[in-house]
């Protein structure tokens, strides 16, 4: 159990708030066991009022107080933030990073602290339906891995991997993935409007079709190609549509996009 853990969320932005919300929604810790840091006073007040947690603009004090420090900041802030916190983490304190592209060694070297978990959640975490891939440094104990699994599980689903290289892959596939689906759904809604549907109606059809398809695929246990073939009658409407998608290079473009996201994640890890 982690109810007695003191948790500092460094950066109360969208994902930081999602983590606070998830932990409280699942009753993992009471509000007085969480402190969130934020530079803007109005944002501090908003988070404190909404969740009943403590807030501050003092990262050093928050990290010193905590047993688990969650870093939910933008990658470009790390070169300034981490050196300021060097020497403030006590032995046995766990660091969890949800910062895109930031490798474990980057945190370990700049913080001079070995117990680091690196993770990559995605935006559906805001409603408890996220997918988080994570790994840990060798110095992280079994108990601390249990803490990390419980905390990251409050986002939705979590998957531990034993190779940090998978984190850049996960960034490209599941971390960035929601944007691919949003673009696809937007294009389908626009096509529906072009056909003659009112926009609200086209959106309702597309959203439910996407949701139902995902739930069906998850529940059926069938290969995705088998599910696709089950919709495709010879010479029918689906066959005509799929022919155009394949002719337009949908698979190639999507694969290239995922590779571009992967390369960018690796570049961020090298400080580019």
Short description:
With 272 residues, the protein is an alpha/beta fold. It has helices at residues 14-25, 41-51, 59-65, 78-85, 104-111, 142-153, 165-175, 177-195, 199-220, 224-231, 237-247, 250-269; strands spanning 7-10, 34-37, 54-56, 68-71, 94-97, 116-120, 130-136, 156-160.
Question: Structural class from helices and strands?
Answer: alpha/beta
Span from first to last CA?
39 Å
- Return Rg in Å: 21 Å
User: What is the CATH-assigned architecture of the largest domain?
Assistant: 3-Layer(aba) Sandwich
Poorly predicted runs: none
Tally of helical runs: 12
User: Roughly how much helix do the residues carry, as a percent range?
Assistant: 40-55%
Broad shape:
elongated
């Amino acid at each position: 159990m982690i109810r007695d853990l003191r948790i500092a969320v460094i950066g109360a932005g969208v994902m930081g708030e999602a983590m606070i919300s998830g932990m409280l929604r699942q009753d993992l810790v009471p509000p007085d066991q969480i402190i969130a840091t934020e530079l803007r006073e109005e944002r501090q007040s908003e988070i404190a009022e909404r969740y009943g947690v403590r807030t501050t603009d003092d990262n050093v004090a928050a990290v010193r107080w905590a047993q688990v420090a969650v870093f939910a900041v933008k990658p470009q802030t790390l070169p300034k933030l981490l050196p300021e916190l060097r020497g403030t983490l006590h032995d046995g304190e766990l660091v969890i990073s949800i910062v895109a592209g930031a490798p474990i060694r980057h945190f370990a070297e700049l913080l001079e602290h070995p117990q680091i978990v690196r993770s990559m959640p995605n935006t559906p975490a805001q409603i408890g339906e996220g997918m988080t891939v994570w790994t840990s440094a060798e110095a992280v104990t079994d108990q601390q891995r249990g803490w990390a699994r419980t905390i990251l599980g409050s986002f939705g689903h979590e998957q531990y991997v034993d190779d940090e290289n998978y984190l850049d892959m996960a960034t490209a596939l599941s971390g960035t993935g929601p944007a691919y689906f949003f673009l696809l759904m937007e294009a389908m809604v626009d096509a529906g409007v072009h056909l003659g549907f009112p926009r609200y109606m086209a959106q309702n059809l597309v959203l439910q079709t996407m949701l139902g398809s995902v739930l069906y695929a998850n529940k059926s246990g069938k290969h995705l190609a088998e599910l696709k073939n089950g919709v495709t009658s010879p010479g029918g409407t689906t066959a005509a549509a799929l022919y155009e998608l394949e002719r337009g290079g949908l698979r190639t473009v999507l694969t290239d996009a995922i590779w571009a996201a992967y390369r960018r994640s690796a570049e961020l890890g090298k400080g580019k």
